[in-house]
Amino acid sequence: MSGGTTTATRAEYCVVACAEAWRGAGEVLASPMGTVPTIGARLAKLTFSPDLLLTDGEALLIGDVPAVGARAQVVEGWLPYRQHLALVATGRRHVMMGASQLDRHGNQNISCIGAWDRPERQLLGVRGAPINTLNNPTSYWVPKHSPRVFVEQVDMVSGVGYDRAAAAGPSATRYHRIPDVISNLGVFDFETPDRTMRLRSLHPGVTVEQVVQATGFALTVPDDVPHTREPTAGELRLIREVIDPKALRDREVPAA
Asked: Is a pLDDT exceeding 80 seen at residue 41?
């Protein structure tokens, strides 16, 4: 780490990986769900994606970048529900959702565990996952990588993966894209011939063997897997002093 800066934590590597999902996004609405993705979106806004649009999480477009949990002081506009839907339906939003289950094709489940007619556990419900995944780029954040999340087949499809979008045809694939899956172990994508999940980078301290053991399906693993890029000294200062001074990121991703 340059400049004698304290070594980055696992949570801070995850923040940077999430921020990278919005690199070069332009004037696109960022919709992060979860603490680490929220910090990542704000870091992207303050660094390499200054045109990124942020909201207060409800109905206001904000012009400043407050600390997590703080109120925005600069409001740029009102985002009524109809306008929000217009952004969603035209690919001008990049949402980063969570996933209770995720399979090799990127199908996501946040609805239930077990058979749909008699589930073992009721979760959030399908919510907006179908329209998110079919109408704008959707990435995923998984704070605890395990075979219970990364499964061979999801119990119910909430977010649409590459195989199901392809089967539905051009109306489903026009805006469908899953750029990134980020977990506490590494970064994944679907840049393979059959659009199945690939290991793109490992967070420092994580091995390929650990990722393979924590994944319930066969990943595509390149011969040479790089490490997730480390935060710069400036990024660490923003994370620690400006965006997340209460270190809420460490509650979502404890020290390895």
From this structure: yes
